[in-house]
Amino acid sequence: MGNCADCLTNFFCHSKNTNVRVSLPAVCFVWQIAMIILFGVFIRYDEESDAHWVEFRRENNITSDIENDFYFRYPSFQDVHVMIFVGFGFLMTFLKRYSFGGVGFNFLIAAFGLQWALLMQGWFHALNPETGKITIGVESLINADFCCAGSLIAYGALLGKVSPVQLLVVTLFGVTLFAVEEYIILDLLHCRDAGGSMVIHAFGGYYGLAISWVLYRPNLHQSKRLNGSVYHSDVFAMIGTLFLWMFWPSFNSAITDHGDGQHRAAINTYLALASSVLTTVAISSMSQKRGKLDMVHIQNATLAGGVAMGTAAEFMITPYGSLIVGFCTGIISTFGYLFVTPFLEKHLKLQDTCGVHNLHAVPGMLGGFIGAIVAAAADETVYSREGLINTFDFEGEFANRSVGTQGGFQAAGTCVAIAFGLVGGAIVGFILRFPIWGDPADDNCYDDEVYWEVPEDEEAIPPVLEYNNHMIHKHQDISESNFSVEQS
To answer: What is the pTM of this model?
Structure first.
């Protein structure tokens, strides 16, 4: 037994080798070739993107090409696509020496993830049993981007601590788990979750946190000098924040039904986001002795209103209800960065680089339960009979479902998303512990030079100007400067 334990210890604690010259190209080539083969076998254009559209128009009495779904959905797709590649990417550039990894690996995850997502979601939602084919259109592209978002959120918890090969594994399993939990929540439980508070944010947040917990690095303090931001890196991250903040109404309304539901989802998200900015600024200022603002809070907690409004966005939550959601989640998210993140790292051994617990996991969970409450409180005087049927899709086998029952299923859906994130993340974390993925050593994290060719700076690097750390809140005396010089 002792020899077996020693062998396991030596296997998992083997010295790190970050050379991915063979493994990364191999995984990229093999998986991309697999995508080409699978797309050739399964994927076809749907009736609105196929050359037979002219015949389809005539057979269905469609008078104009403008009624093609492309013209309804493509503006929202553009906004969501920018959020995935620019918003999420630049939000992760806050680390002083990991901007290439933040935006570059975000690009890699999304590019692979959207292909796998079209297949996984197609098998669950769009597979024609007669032909065995999956048909895709513009709405499929939006859903694939949503699916990628779950893995990108998980990446936030792992930022700077994993290799690109590990990230591709995280994406492979993340997209697969997402497709399964989405099918259970949206199809089997018949929940409504237009903006993905449950299926995207709660799942993605807890998926990343579970992986990070399993991959705990006891000596990560050896890379502490790089686990922070400098002035220009925070400015770049703020660009990501602004793109996400501006386009979040499109994110939450992109796949809702045409008409009042889509219109309402955009309005509710717009208001919740605005409200969360003010409460974030208020709590951030109150937390400092001289009332100064912390850029970490402004970059992240200001988005919490959009996350929490995802499920209830298309419901009749009322404009002031949206403001209340943003008001509360801005406070909760900022307190999370101030107190919860340091607590999780110190007591639960959970190292969350970007603080996805505070921006995605908790607001996503709250958004799911807010949606459950709003659904259970719905009535015909507010929605009208037809409005209730249209909003909650009470048709077919669900025609006799009551709003109270719908609220219960909405809450159950939130629990399913969290369970899939935690259990799936723990399993994937154990897979990633095998010493074959080229991940960095504890003293070599948060550094682009491990996986990127980094050009030399024009000026000497060694004193690194550091003013903030995304993991530990610094309580400074009034007499202390907000800046400190750290020798590398």
So the answer is: 0.91
